[in-house]
């Protein structure tokens, strides 16, 4: 459920986290899920199939994107698009200069133009079955355009637990990797994107 607080903006849930007021009702859970799936799929995976053009940096014209959504969902309002983006706790999307894009998670071939990360170390969670392969061959994207690294051990553990019960957390020597010419792009406060991490920058964090 998405609502809007007059003082603190859009939020998800029954009440504003800051002032505890219920705010103005916008979207129920069902409509939020439908719009969220379409936004994610279009901005990350199939813009052409959805009928929108995406530039080399992942941007889509906001008005064109809204028009496509309006044709698909006759109850759609442009405010709903802003509400989805601004209330997203993971910061998955951004709107800038009448354009919209996903911050990460792409399978389409784009070049995200984020600034370089200044974290000296980054983290990546792996299952026990794959960790030896990663230490030998490095980390490469499989189904996505970029490898997604975490800016903290805790976030890497949280992500890894979605896929495995016994994650092993790898530490990346980001400072050394960047010195050697590997680009590490800061997508959000939690996520850094890269095209590859060779094995010489990987170390297991022992319990």
The total strand number stands at 12
Instruction: Give the amount of beta strand, in percent.
Output: 15-25%
Mean pLDDT: 94
| Order of adjacent strands in the largest pleated sheet | 2-1-3
Structural class: alpha+beta
Kindly list the characteristics that best describe this protein.
30% helix, 207 residues, 2 domains, alpha+beta, Arc Repressor Mutant, subunit A, ADP-ribosylation fold, 3-stranded antiparallel β-sheet
Can you describe this structure?
- By secondary structure, this protein is of the alpha+beta class.
- The chain folds into 2 domains: 2-102, Arc Repressor Mutant, subunit A (Orthogonal Bundle); 121-204, ADP-ribosylation fold (Alpha-Beta Barrel).
- It has 7 helices and 12 strands.
- It has helices at residues 29-44, 47-50, 62-72, 78-87, 131-137, 153-160, 174-179; strands at residues 2-5, 9-12, 24-27, 60-61, 93-96, 99-102, 121-126, 147-150, 168-173, 185-186, 191-194, 202-204.
- A 3-stranded antiparallel β-sheet has the order 2-1-3. The protein has a 3-stranded antiparallel β-sheet with strand order 4-6-5.
- The chain is globular.
- The mean pLDDT is 94.
């Amino acid at each position: 459920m998405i609502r809007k607080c007059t003082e603190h903006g859009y939020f998800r849930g029954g009440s504003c986290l800051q002032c505890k007021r219920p705010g103005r009702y916008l979207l129920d859970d069902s409509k939020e899920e439908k719009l969220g799936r379409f936004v994610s799929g279009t901005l990350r995976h199939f813009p052409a199939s959805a009928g929108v053009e995406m530039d080399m940096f992942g941007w889509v014209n906001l008005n064109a994107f809204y028009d496509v959504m309006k044709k698909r969902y006759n109850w759609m309002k442009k405010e709903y698009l802003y509400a989805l983006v601004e209330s997203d706790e993971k910061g998955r999307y951004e709107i800038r200069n009448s354009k919209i894009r996903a911050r990460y998670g792409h399978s389409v071939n784009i070049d995200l133009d984020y600034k370089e990360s200044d974290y000296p170390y980054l983290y990546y969670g792996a299952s026990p079955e794959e960790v030896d392969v990663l230490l030998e061959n490095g980390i490469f994207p499989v189904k996505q355009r970029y490898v997604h690294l975490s800016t903290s051990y805790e976030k890497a553990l949280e992500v890894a637990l979605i896929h495995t019960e016994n994650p092993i957390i790898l530490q990346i020597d980001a400072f050394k990797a960047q010195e050697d010419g590997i680009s590490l792009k800061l997508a959000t406060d939690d996520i850094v994107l890269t095209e590859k991490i060779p094995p010489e920058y990987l170390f297991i964090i022992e319990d």
